[in-house]
Amino acid sequence: MKKRLISLMLIVALVLAPIPVVKAEETNWIGYTAISDKAELNHIRNNLSGKYYLTKDIVFTPIDFANGGDFYNEGAGWIPIGTDEVTAFNGVLDGNGFNISGLYCKISQSIPNVYIGLFGYNKGTIQNLGMINGNIQGISTSLDSDSNVYVGGILGYNYNGNISNCYFTGKVSSEHSSYNSKTFE
């Protein structure tokens, strides 16, 4: 009888004992800056060699790009982060599995090379990022036949940077005054 009582008490103790929850290993974000909204995303351009990670989805709306909106920029919409080799993004952006949606960018320039996307010119690391329903347009009005239009959803031009586990849905188009335009959806 004593053995049964001890066995029953052990079973009850095991059932009532708290079960430890084992979490999946979390990324160590020490040294990174958290990005949780459009304004913080925009501020990446103030430290092009910083380390950043998204903490939630970032959603742009047509109002953001309308006249008077925070990202109107005289009709251009989003201004790419890192616009040429000198001002290239060379930090880290980890999307942390989150998305940026609704980004609109229509840049028209007369300079020889145009770099258009969320990032224009990249030398850094962009990873684990989704972009959905984007509309990215690059237009060069340069008459220089050696000029180029580098346009992409996440980035326009990548120079020895690392891009991994990223995707883009939406529209990307380029136009050069001397050549035919290209549109991809």
Q: What key phrases describe this protein's structure?
A:
15 strands; 3 helices; mainly beta; disordered N terminus; 185 residues; 6-stranded mixed sheet
Task: Give the strand content.
Answer: 35-45%
- Beta-strand segment tally: 15
- The overall pLDDT average reads 84
Globally, the shape reads globular
- H-E order: HEHEEHEEEEEEEEEEEE
Question: What is the share of helical residues?
Answer: 10-25%
Terminus-to-terminus distance = 76 Å
- Radius of gyration equals 24 Å
Q: Can you count the helices?
A: 3
Q: Tell me the major beta sheet.
A: 6 strands, mixed
| Poorly predicted tracts of residues | 2-25
Structural class: mainly beta
Number of structural domains = 1
What do these coordinates show?
This protein has 185 residues and is mostly beta strands. It has one domain. It is 13% helix and 36% strand. It has helices at 2-16, 38-42, 62-65; strands at residues 33-35, 51-54, 58-59, 92-94, 99-101, 104-109, 113-116, 119-122, 125-127, 130-140, 148-151, 155-158, 162-164, 167-176, 182-184. Strands 3, 5, 6, 10, 14 and 15 form a six-stranded mixed sheet that branches. The protein has a five-stranded parallel sheet with strand order 1-2-4-9-13. The longest helix is centred in the N-terminal third of the chain and has 15 residues, at 2-16. The protein is globular and about 50 Å long. The model is unreliable at 2-25 (pLDDT under 50).
